[in-house]
Every structure is written in C-alpha cells, then in structure tokens.
Amino acid sequence: MSPTHFERAAEATPPMLAKKIRGLSDRAIAWIFVAPTIFLLLAINIFPLIWTIRLSFTNFRVNRPNAEVQFVGLDNYRRILSDSDIWLTMQTTAHFLIWTILLQVLIGFSLAYLINKKFRGNDLWTTIIVFPMMLSPAVVGNFWTFLYQPQIGLFNYVVGFLTHTDPSSFSMIGDVNLAPWAIVIVDTWMWTPFVMLICLAGLRSIPGSIYEAAECDRASKWRQFWTITLPMVLPFLMLAVLFRGIENFKMFDLVVQLTGGGPGSITELTSINLKREAFEKWRTGYSSAYAVILFVTVFGLASIYVKALNKVKER
Amino acid sequence: MSSFISGLMRFRRGAWEMLASIMIALGVVMMMQPFALSLFSYSFLVTLIGTMMFIITSHFPE
User: Fold this and answer.
1) DSSP 3-state of A54
2) Which of A85, A237, B20, B46 is the most exposed place for a label (fewest CB within 10 A)?
3) Is the domain of A82 the same as that of A49?
4) A22 in a structural domain
C-alpha cells in the first residue's frame, strides 16, 4: 500500500523541524499538569512546616512584628519539656485518646457485626447510626452542652432515672472528675459510626465461601469469629484506629465548644493548650516548638502504624 | 533474639525498623505517663531519634 499524503509529508520533514511542529514533549506536558499540584503542596504544606521549625528556635512573637527576633537555640524545647502544665495536658490527651479509641473500636465493631446480619430495617438503622458523624463538631458540642445541663439536661435526667439520684446533683461539664468523661462520651457518640462503617466494609469483604468451608469442618460460631472474622477485619480495624488516633490527638473544636478546656484546665488537650500559647499568649516561637513536638510524635506513631498495617495486609 | 541481633549487625531493615518502632513507642509512653517529669523531659529526644532512625532504616535492604 502506498504511503498517504500525511505520511509522505512526515517523512520529508527534518527531525528538528518536526519537533518544533509537534511542540512540547510528553514529559513536558506531564510536568505542566503536575506543577500546580507540586507548587500548592510546597506552598501549603512544606513551606509552613519548614518555617515553623525555623521559628521554634527563636523568641518571635507575632503580636510584636517590629521587635528584634533573637535566636534562642533549644531554649523553647527545654522550657516545654520541663513544664509540668504541659505534662498534665499530655496526660489529659492520653486519657482522652485511650478511652475514645477503646470505646469506639468496641462499640463500632459490635454495631458493624450486628448491622452485617440481614434483618428488616437494616438500611434505616444504618442511616440512623451514621447520623451523628454527619453533624458539625460545633453543633454536636452545643447540642451536648444542653444535654449535660444539670437542671434541664436529658442526659442527667436519664442517669438520674437509672441510678435513682437527683439529676441536678451532678454536672458533667462542671465537675473536675466527670468532665474528662463527658468529652470521651461525646466523641464516642459522634465517631463510633465512622469506625462502624470501616468495620462493615471489612466484614462485607469476607467471602461467604470461607464460612461455608468452616461450617463443613464443623467449626463453631465462636471459632469462626476468632479464626476468620477477626483476622480478616483486623487491617480495617487498624486503619480505623490510625485515623481516629491521629484525629483525636489533634482534637480541638468539639472540646472547645463543649468545655472550653475547663473546669480549670482539666479537659485542656494539647491542641487547645497550643492554641492558647500561640493566639492568647502570643508566644509564637515557643508554640512553634510545641507544634514541632506534636508533629514528630504523630509522625512517629503513624510510621509504626503504617508498617504494622502493611504486615497485617501481607498475611 | 539472635536473628534480631544479627539483623542489627548486618544492617537489615526488619531489625532496625523494629528498634526504631520500640524507641518511638517508648518516647510516646514517656511523654504521656503520669509518674515522672524527668521521663517527660527526655520523651521528645527518644521519639525524635526513633522517628529519624525509622526514616533512615526503611531504606535498608530486607
């Protein structure tokens, strides 16, 4: 077959001229498409991180932009790591983190296990359970503030009814012993559906044939749960723990709306404390060092977690 | 235990990552424990060394 008019023209064109005619190479076009994303990533994520690390070695205060900025070395880090108030804040965060994750995983997995069984109204119940997750943390905080009211709060009324005590005899957000539990309850109420959805995805990914084979081998329901269900849902559970762990380590809005860190500073989590140092006391250099400490901690934990997750997935 | 030590000696990824993970976990526990302020003071150093070690050793051969 004789070459077409276009093919003959292409053969006759010198390579350099052909390149000019074609314009940009595929690689150049790829870079043009990727460049805005890389630029945004550098501008929004990498640059502020490097700037924060730089500020953490200075005495810079953002409310005194004209004051001379001095390099203070590791002084900010030394002060933070010997501050007993910050140590107490870390303990409050640990209490919040451990209990919320434990309760959310237990309740979330149980709910997913129940929802996974086919029954009438299954979809309606799933929607009802997932509802708290769709709300804004500010709305949830306000809503639970009313529920926790000693005089008119529904929560106090129910607890009073069940324990035969006077509902106005205790205040969930005003009592130093109850306030840490008040924020745990609200976070669990709000985010258990998230854990449930992830577990449900895990449960639905298990092929029915495995259970059929186990039943042929006369494995009990209990054994099926421990040897099939739990190991196969474990990567999903670990993913849920990773997400909730990181989110709760940074928890701010819900707790601010609910207790504002009080009474006193009994529910002051690290992020609330950091915000106070940065935007109420205006100690920018000091709070930058604080932010770097939290960043390294979360980054380290996430690294371990991703490694563990990969190992579980390889099994 | 001996395979772990030989992994460390031969700069193998698994053993060194395990050591880094232990250091990170130890650092976090030290940071959040309610018993001694001195442990809290050294927690960041331990976590930082562990994290840096993790980043470096994740490039070691298997």
Assistant:
1) helix
2) A85
3) no
4) yes
Q: How far apart are the first and last CA of chain A?
A: 57
**CATH label of the domain that carries residue A181:** 1.10.3720.10
Residues A142 and A51 in one domain: no
What residues pair up with A58 in beta bridges, in sequence order? A71
- For an interface test with B, the pick among A297, A305, A310 (most B C-beta atoms closer than 10 Å) comes out as A297
Between B37-57 and A284-314, two packed helices, what is the crossing angle to 10 degrees?
A: 50
d(CA A201, CA A224): 18
3-state secondary structure of B43: helix
Which of B16, B30, B38, B40 would best serve as a mutation to test chain A binding (most A beta carbons within 10 A)? Answer: B40
Q: Do A19 and A109 fall within a single domain? A: no
Instruction: Check whether A40 has a pLDDT greater than 90.
Output: yes
- List pLDDT tens digits, range A203-223: 998 998 999 999 898 888 899
How would residue A100 be classed by pLDDT, with cut points 50, 70 and 90?
very high
Report d(CA A50, CA A42) in Å as an integer.
Answer: 10
Q: Which of A258, A122, A148, A131 is nearest to A191 (CA)?
A: A131
A313 C-beta neighbours (distance < 10 Å), count: 11
Number of domains in chain A: 2
Residue in chain A closest to B57 (alpha carbons) equals A303
pLDDT tens readout for residues A222-258: 999 999 999 999 888 888 888 898 889 889 989 999 9
Q: What's the CA gap between A216 and A52, in Å, rounded?
A: 61
Domain extent, residue A241, equals 75-314
A247 belongs to a structural domain: yes
Cα–Cα dist A119/A221, whole Å: 19
Q: pTM, whole model, 2 decimals?
A: 0.82
